[in-house]
Amino acid sequence: MNAAASARLREGGIEWPTASKRVVVLHGDTRELIRAIPDNSVQCAVTSPPYWGVRDYGVDQQIGAEPDLSAYIKSLVEVFREVRRVLAPDGVFWLNIGNTYSSGGRKWRDADEKNKGRAMSYRPPTPEGLKKKDLIGVAWLLALECQHDGWYLRNDIIWYKPNCQPESVKDRLTVAHEYLFLFSKSERYYFDQDAIKQQTTNGDGLKNRRTVWSINTEPCPEAHFAVFPKALIRPCILAGSRADDVVLDPFYGVGTTGVVAKELGRRCIGIELSREYIAIAERRTAEVQGMLIL
After folding, report:
1. Rounded distance between C-alpha atoms, residue 285 and residue 102, angstroms
2. What is the pLDDT of residue 291?
3. Which residue in 267, 259, 215 sits closest to 241, CA to CA?
């Protein structure tokens, strides 16, 4: 990183991950903090932003609690525009996002013993043009807006969750998947296909990874909800970065991206609004003693 970029970081009060401190977490609103990160300074971004109308994080002006769906998508597109700015020219961005349903007119949601994080004091109204109980298709609406904003949309990956949370619905199927979108900043970009190849069916060779990934969710008792599983993030970081590269997660949560980055010998910078989540993330990252042997 050049001197001008380093000075910009210091002026913004931002510490940069180093060989001795491989994971740095910034506390605050990602919409503000990401602006202090220099252009072209990270190689790979991996994130799962708050989903629209799914969970109440108890923070004023939180992304995901907008009453209007278009405002939610606009907020994320603006954040991801900054992600594109800070990525290296050959950098990639992995976005995990799930679809949601309109609320059917309900204004709040009770706590669920199986998932305490589902309790909500608000429910957004049905988006204009849709009906009660409609599948909204937020994931694709967001992906297409990112594409229109300048990203190269390279893959839509189905994350199939074999241990998905049961639903009590009687008039539709239980949702057992989310999306993982691969974007690139440029037409040509760094992508290590060999690092994530899979065994062939008969086990006598390797094949390119397919676009349906069967990965269990992982519980996080401290956070009261399932988190970004390490097995979902690991292929993203392996394919999208080299050893010692910097990985960014602008919605850091409880720090799974940092844990995996440290395990794989990368550095990581995360941005998180909740001090509680940062504390959990720091404990999880501290448990990683060194790089995994691959």
Report:
1. 36
2. 64
3. 267
The CA distances from residue 205 to 45, 192, 213, in Å, are 30, 18, 19
> Each residue of 45-93: pLDDT tens digit?
999 999 987 766 666 678 887 888 999 999 999 999 999 999 999 999 9
- Quick one: how far is CA 32 from the chain centroid? 18
- Classify residue 271 by burial, with Cβ atoms within 10 Å: 0-12, 13-18, 19+: buried
pTM for this prediction? 0.90
Cα distances from 208 to residues 148, 189, 197, 212, 262, in angstroms, run 28, 17, 5, 12, 25
Comparing CA positions, the residue from 55, 52, 53, 51 lying closest to residue 119 is 55
The token pair that represents 247 in the structure block: 């990985």
DSSP secondary structure, 66-133, as one string: -SSHHHHHHHHHHHHHHHHHHEEEEEEEEEEE---B--TT-S-B--BTTBGGG-BS--PPPPTT--TT
DSSP code, position 43? E
User: For the chain, which residues score pLDDT lower than 70?
Assistant: 1-8, 10-12, 55-60, 104-123, 223-226, 290-294
- Residue 246 to residue 269: CA distance in whole angstroms: 7
Architecture of domain 42-246: 3-Layer(aba) Sandwich (3.40)
Spatial contact of 134 and 102, defined as CB atoms under 8 Å apart: yes
Residue boundaries of the structural domains of the chain: 42-246
Answer for the pair 126, 74: CB distance below 8 angstroms, yes or no: no
Of 70, 47, 147, 140, residue with least CA distance to 99:
140
